[in-house]
Design a protein that fits this description.
350 residues, mainly alpha, 17 helices, transmembrane helix, transmembrane
Length: 350
């Protein structure tokens, strides 16, 4: 069924871009808040020609008995959206889960747009500079070799400059190929590698490891707090989290905790053992014996983590341009020296 729906959507409508996904969720949340049932809300959304096929496919999937996350996944909604919708199976909170999806996806789109804005001009400059460097390497520097053949030092400087440019271009090409090859290979072998080895690999990547730790802690706190509202005991909550396969790290951690809880261990002693969970989570569980207080603290902690991730992402994005401009300035100085230094050497010989 899911395969049929994906083919149906792919063959009959434009690609489901980020803006369309967000607008669909916003309309669905607005209609649900006005008292519409899920199916009635989807019918109203279908009045928009751009969303007719999407709403129809999701409605058909729901009527066939699929869960809401499976229905949205079948029409190619982003994985981060379907991850939130998965937990509706347990908490039954459709409006709340969709509201969280909207908040999360708005942040995602905001930072994607910011990154594109900050990266646009450096990429344009890189393209222009690459053309300039190619022109200098192919036309200007060979002319300098002929011009300065009477000066051994000047001719040697130009030759060395040409070699350095060749080496730099070669290194950039090799690094780009290795990066693409590494990403391609990782996507192929990722499913074949155990989650323990994946976690060890993530821990070897300094910057990515830190962001992933914040994200995993945020998702664990968010989903644990939402399931606490249903009155489930800890063990049942962990079972529900472990059954989802959209966030493998959290699923793995939840399975480990479920096994240890069965043996009589406390959850506070288990959280500190996981490298991709913040230590503050352990402190929160140790502090609160009351379920309501724990749910409240986890919700607040998830909000704080959201703010922390936003701050760090913006900081990382704003560093892109200065770093790139510094590198580009270094290359420009190199080109300037390459062109001027042989002239100074030739003048000395006069």
């Amino acid at each position: 069924m899911a395969i049929y729906l994906k083919r149906f959507i792919t063959n009959h409508k434009p690609s489901l871009n980020n803006e369309l996904q967000l607008r669909f969720l916003q309309r669905l949340q607005r209609l649900l808040s006005k008292g519409y049932t899920l199916l009635a809300a989807l019918e109203v959304i279908g009045w928009d020609k751009q969303m007719t096929l999407i709403a129809a496919a999701i409605t058909e999937s729901l009527k066939k008995g699929h869960t809401i996350d499976e229905a949205f996944e079948a029409v190619s909604f982003h994985q981060s959206i379907t991850t939130y919708l998965y937990f509706i199976r347990s908490n039954g909170d459709v409006p709340g889960s969709i509201r969280k999806c909207i908040e999360m996806y708005e942040h995602r789109m905001k930072y994607t747009q910011k990154f594109q804005q900050f990266a646009r001009y450096p990429l344009i400059l890189l393209f222009v500079f690459s053309i300039l460097l190619y022109f200098i390497k192919q036309s200007v520097l060979p002319s300098f070799v002929d011009l300065f053949h009477t000066s051994a030092e000047a001719s040697f400087t130009v030759t060395v400059s040409m070699m350095i440019i060749d080496i730099l271009v070669f290194l950039v090409i090799v690094m780009f190929i290795l990066l693409c090859l590494g990403v391609f290979i990782w996507r192929i072998i990722k499913e074949k590698i155990s989650i323990e080895k994946q976690i060890k690999f993530y821990n070897t990547i300094p910057v990515y490891r830190h962001f992933l730790k914040l994200q995993i802690s945020f998702l664990f706190a968010t989903h644990f707090s939402s399931l606490l509202k249903t009155g489930m005991p800890f063990k049942e909550i962990l079972l529900h989290i472990s059954r989802q396969n959209k966030i493998p790290v959290i699923s793995h951690y939840s399975k480990k905790m479920t096994e240890e809880l069965t043996k009589g261990f406390q959850i506070t002693s288990l959280l500190s053992q996981f490298s991709l969970l913040e230590n503050q989570l352990t402190a929160i569980f140790q502090k609160n014996a009351d379920v309501e207080a724990l749910e409240k603290d986890l919700s607040i902690y998830a909000e704080l983590l959201t703010e922390e991730m936003q701050r760090k992402i913006i900081k990382a994005i704003t560093l892109i341009q200065p770093i790139f401009f510094l590198i580009l300035a270094s290359f420009i100085i190199f080109v300037y020296v390459t062109l001027m230094w042989p002239m100074f050497q030739l003048i000395k010989t006069i």
